[in-house]
Specification:
It is a single chain. The protein is α+β, with helices and mostly antiparallel strands. The chain is 23% helix and 27% strand. The chain has a single domain, classed as Peptide deformylase (Peptide Deformylase), CATH 3.90.45.10. It contains four helices and nine strands, in the order βαβββββββαααβ. The strands form three sheets. Strands 2-3-4-7-8 form a five-stranded antiparallel β-sheet. Strands 1-9 form a two-stranded parallel sheet. It has a two-stranded antiparallel sheet with strand order 5-6. A hairpin with a 5-residue loop joins β7 and β8. The longest helix has 14 residues.
Protein backbone atom coordinates (compact mmCIF):
# COMPACT_ATOMS: atom_id res chain seq x y z
CA UNK A 1 0.00 0.00 0.00
CA UNK A 2 1.28 3.45 -0.92
CA UNK A 3 1.38 5.64 2.19
CA UNK A 4 1.32 9.45 2.24
CA UNK A 5 4.70 11.04 2.88
CA UNK A 6 4.67 13.52 5.75
CA UNK A 7 6.04 16.90 4.74
CA UNK A 8 8.23 19.32 6.68
CA UNK A 9 6.26 20.85 9.53
CA UNK A 10 4.62 17.60 10.62
CA UNK A 11 5.48 17.05 14.33
CA UNK A 12 6.38 13.37 13.82
CA UNK A 13 9.43 14.46 11.80
CA UNK A 14 10.86 16.22 14.87
CA UNK A 15 10.21 13.50 17.42
CA UNK A 16 12.99 11.04 18.33
CA UNK A 17 11.77 7.54 17.53
CA UNK A 18 11.30 4.47 19.70
CA UNK A 19 13.04 1.13 19.33
CA UNK A 20 10.84 -1.82 18.46
CA UNK A 21 11.07 -5.58 18.88
CA UNK A 22 9.76 -8.50 16.85
CA UNK A 23 6.35 -8.16 18.56
CA UNK A 24 5.65 -4.83 16.87
CA UNK A 25 2.37 -5.40 15.00
CA UNK A 26 2.55 -5.89 11.22
CA UNK A 27 6.19 -4.78 10.93
CA UNK A 28 6.84 -6.85 7.80
CA UNK A 29 3.83 -5.27 6.09
CA UNK A 30 4.95 -1.79 7.15
CA UNK A 31 8.41 -2.43 5.67
CA UNK A 32 6.81 -3.62 2.40
CA UNK A 33 4.57 -0.53 2.36
CA UNK A 34 7.56 1.72 3.01
CA UNK A 35 9.48 0.21 0.08
CA UNK A 36 6.38 0.59 -2.15
CA UNK A 37 5.91 4.20 -1.03
CA UNK A 38 9.59 5.02 -1.59
CA UNK A 39 9.57 3.50 -5.09
CA UNK A 40 6.34 5.28 -5.99
CA UNK A 41 7.95 8.61 -5.00
CA UNK A 42 11.20 7.81 -6.88
CA UNK A 43 13.16 7.93 -3.62
CA UNK A 44 16.19 5.95 -2.52
CA UNK A 45 15.50 6.05 1.23
CA UNK A 46 12.57 6.44 3.58
CA UNK A 47 12.36 6.52 7.37
CA UNK A 48 9.27 5.53 9.36
CA UNK A 49 8.59 9.10 10.64
CA UNK A 50 8.20 10.15 7.00
CA UNK A 51 5.09 7.95 6.81
CA UNK A 52 3.82 8.89 10.27
CA UNK A 53 5.38 6.19 12.48
CA UNK A 54 7.63 7.26 15.35
CA UNK A 55 9.65 4.04 15.35
CA UNK A 56 13.29 3.22 14.50
CA UNK A 57 12.76 1.69 11.05
CA UNK A 58 14.09 2.77 7.67
CA UNK A 59 14.33 1.37 4.17
CA UNK A 60 16.94 2.08 1.53
CA UNK A 61 17.33 1.03 -2.08
CA UNK A 62 20.09 3.06 -3.67
CA UNK A 63 20.95 0.37 -6.23
CA UNK A 64 19.64 2.66 -8.98
CA UNK A 65 22.65 4.90 -8.20
CA UNK A 66 25.09 2.02 -8.76
CA UNK A 67 26.36 3.23 -12.15
CA UNK A 68 27.49 6.56 -10.70
CA UNK A 69 28.34 5.28 -7.21
CA UNK A 70 29.54 1.64 -7.27
CA UNK A 71 29.21 1.44 -3.45
CA UNK A 72 25.43 1.64 -3.98
CA UNK A 73 25.22 -1.24 -6.46
CA UNK A 74 23.63 -3.70 -4.02
CA UNK A 75 22.43 -1.25 -1.38
CA UNK A 76 18.90 -2.43 -0.61
CA UNK A 77 18.17 -2.78 3.11
CA UNK A 78 15.48 -2.58 5.72
CA UNK A 79 17.04 -1.46 9.01
CA UNK A 80 15.38 -1.78 12.39
CA UNK A 81 16.82 0.05 15.42
CA UNK A 82 19.90 1.23 13.50
CA UNK A 83 22.75 2.76 15.44
CA UNK A 84 25.74 4.46 13.81
CA UNK A 85 28.60 3.25 15.97
CA UNK A 86 31.46 4.91 14.14
CA UNK A 87 31.89 7.90 11.80
CA UNK A 88 35.00 9.10 10.03
CA UNK A 89 36.28 12.60 10.72
CA UNK A 90 36.71 12.97 6.96
CA UNK A 91 33.59 14.57 5.47
CA UNK A 92 32.18 15.06 1.97
CA UNK A 93 29.89 17.90 0.88
CA UNK A 94 27.22 16.91 -1.65
CA UNK A 95 23.78 18.07 -2.65
CA UNK A 96 20.87 16.28 -0.97
CA UNK A 97 17.14 16.26 -1.25
CA UNK A 98 14.42 14.61 0.80
CA UNK A 99 10.94 13.28 0.03
CA UNK A 100 9.63 15.32 2.99
CA UNK A 101 11.05 18.49 1.36
CA UNK A 102 9.85 18.36 -2.25
CA UNK A 103 11.72 20.72 -4.54
CA UNK A 104 14.42 21.60 -2.00
CA UNK A 105 18.03 20.55 -2.55
CA UNK A 106 21.00 21.77 -0.54
CA UNK A 107 24.67 20.95 -0.05
CA UNK A 108 25.22 18.98 3.16
CA UNK A 109 28.45 17.81 4.78
CA UNK A 110 28.47 14.21 6.02
CA UNK A 111 31.03 11.66 7.21
CA UNK A 112 32.72 9.84 4.32
CA UNK A 113 32.51 6.47 6.12
CA UNK A 114 30.34 4.98 8.83
CA UNK A 115 29.89 1.71 10.68
CA UNK A 116 26.33 0.82 11.63
CA UNK A 117 24.67 -1.86 13.71
CA UNK A 118 21.01 -2.75 13.07
CA UNK A 119 18.45 -5.54 12.89
CA UNK A 120 17.27 -6.68 9.48
CA UNK A 121 13.61 -7.41 8.66
CA UNK A 122 14.02 -10.86 10.27
CA UNK A 123 15.41 -9.27 13.45
CA UNK A 124 18.88 -10.68 12.81
CA UNK A 125 21.68 -8.41 14.03
CA UNK A 126 23.94 -6.95 11.36
CA UNK A 127 26.97 -4.70 11.41
CA UNK A 128 28.13 -3.02 8.22
CA UNK A 129 30.62 -0.48 6.93
CA UNK A 130 29.48 2.04 4.32
CA UNK A 131 31.45 4.67 2.45
CA UNK A 132 30.84 7.46 -0.03
CA UNK A 133 27.32 7.99 -1.30
CA UNK A 134 26.08 4.84 0.46
CA UNK A 135 27.22 6.27 3.82
CA UNK A 136 25.44 9.54 2.98
CA UNK A 137 22.13 7.80 2.29
CA UNK A 138 22.28 5.80 5.53
CA UNK A 139 23.22 8.89 7.58
CA UNK A 140 20.38 10.92 6.06
CA UNK A 141 17.78 8.27 6.92
CA UNK A 142 19.20 7.63 10.42
CA UNK A 143 18.99 11.35 11.10
CA UNK A 144 15.21 11.15 10.61
CA UNK A 145 15.07 8.61 13.45
CA UNK A 146 16.65 11.17 15.80
CA UNK A 147 14.02 13.80 15.01
CA UNK A 148 16.43 15.67 12.75
CA UNK A 149 16.12 16.60 9.08
CA UNK A 150 18.74 17.46 6.49
CA UNK A 151 18.16 21.23 6.71
CA UNK A 152 19.37 21.06 10.32
CA UNK A 153 22.85 20.74 8.81
CA UNK A 154 22.59 24.08 7.00
CA UNK A 155 23.84 27.46 8.15
CA UNK A 156 21.34 29.95 9.56
CA UNK A 157 21.87 32.12 6.49
CA UNK A 158 21.16 29.22 4.11
CA UNK A 159 17.98 28.34 6.02
CA UNK A 160 16.91 31.97 5.83
CA UNK A 161 17.41 31.89 2.05
CA UNK A 162 15.16 28.80 1.89
CA UNK A 163 12.48 30.26 4.19
CA UNK A 164 9.96 30.85 1.41
CA UNK A 165 10.31 27.29 0.09
CA UNK A 166 10.07 25.87 3.61
CA UNK A 167 6.91 27.86 4.35
CA UNK A 168 5.34 26.60 1.13
CA UNK A 169 6.18 23.00 2.08
CA UNK A 170 4.60 23.48 5.52
CA UNK A 171 1.43 24.79 3.85
CA UNK A 172 1.41 21.95 1.31
CA UNK A 173 1.95 24.36 -1.58
CA UNK A 174 4.30 22.07 -3.46
CA UNK A 175 4.07 20.07 -6.65
CA UNK A 176 4.59 16.36 -6.00
CA UNK A 177 3.99 13.24 -8.03
CA UNK A 178 3.34 11.30 -4.80
CA UNK A 179 0.81 11.45 -1.96
CA UNK A 180 1.75 13.81 0.85
CA UNK A 181 0.45 14.91 4.21
CA UNK A 182 1.14 18.56 4.97
CA UNK A 183 0.42 20.37 8.24
CA UNK A 184 -2.25 22.61 6.77
CA UNK A 185 -4.05 19.92 4.77
Amino acid sequence: MILPIYLYGQPVLRKPTEEIDRNYPNIKQLITDMFDTMYHADGIGLAAPQVGYSIRVLVIDASVMGDDYPECKDLKRAMINPDIIEKSDDEIVMEEGCLSFPGLHEKVSRARTIRIRYLDENFEEKEEFFDGFAARVVQHECEHLEGRVFIDNLSTMRKQMDKGKLNNIIKGNTACSYRTKAVGK
